[in-house]
Amino acid sequence: MAKLTFLGTSGSVLTKERMCAGILFEDKLLDVGFGVLTNLLRSGRKLGSINDLYISHTHSDHIGDFTGLVWAMAMEGRTKPLRVISSPNTAAALRRILDLQSTPSAWVKFDITFVKPEEVNVKSATTIHDPENLAYRFQTQHGDLVYIGDTAKSEKTSEFAKGCDLLIHDSTFLDGQESLAAVTQHSTARDAANTAKLAQAKRLVLTHFSPGNEGAERRYLAQASAAFDGRIVVAKDHQILTI
């Protein structure tokens, strides 16, 4: 079975309990927001075991540790390539970030290749979010995993996630915070649950919680459960799930 480790479950900024967006999925890292590198090292996972880095979009809570990850890999003497999967616009931004942060090319002894999802046979879809955010769908022997980073509520995402075994969905806000969700192009726990219901997903994982809602895990679960009767997990840092 494939294993997932949540390395960051906060949105916007890290908190005492949660780092920003990041999930370890076999040899892949899905986003690398602020604090994810710290939790990755604390997990005991060797950086050399990571082959692919999937980036949803360029908000700093999803890419804040990108340069740090590259530098840490270089410090360990990495020589094998690192493949970064994203949209072309995100790839251009990441290249620019490495340059702006004065990453010494002679010191980094491994190639960083930027490719589009279709080049590695991974399905993707653009969500309702600015800047452009890609959702990803991974096929495994035990069912499909769908990762939806930042998105406003949308029936499009439920079509993309149709029939998946595990849906990881942006759940930044709670009931009563719909106006915040709309202006920031994020989802509430209930929005995520409605997507899971329409998609007929087997399991739903809520993540990317607003720091202003710290400690409201029971409310997230209750509001999602009102719309989706499948299994729901309110993710926390270092939590491990399988698919």
Which keywords apply here?
13 strands; alpha/beta; 243 residues; globular; 8 helices; Metallo-beta-lactamase, Chain A; six-stranded mixed beta sheet; seven-stranded mixed beta sheet
Quick structural overview:
The protein has helices spanning 36-42, 60-63, 66-75, 88-100, 155-160, 178-184, 189-199, 217-225, and strands at residues 3-8, 22-25, 28-30, 52-54, 82-85, 112-115, 123-126, 134-140, 143-148, 166-170, 203-207, 231-234, 240-242.
* Element pattern in H and E: EEEHEHHEHEEEEHEHHEHEE
- Per the CATH scheme, the topology name is Metallo-beta-lactamase, Chain A
Total domain units: 1
Query: Mind telling me the C-alpha Rg?
Result: 17 Å
Strand elements, count: 13
Q: Largest sheet, described in full?
A: 7 strands, mixed
Separation, N- and C-terminal Cα atoms: 6 Å
Strand order of the largest sheet: 6-5-4-3-2-1-13
Under the CATH scheme, the architecture is: 4-Layer Sandwich
The CATH homologous superfamily: Ribonuclease Z/Hydroxyacylglutathione hydrolase-like
β-strand amount: 15-25%
Helix percent reads: 25-40%
Give the overall average pLDDT: 97
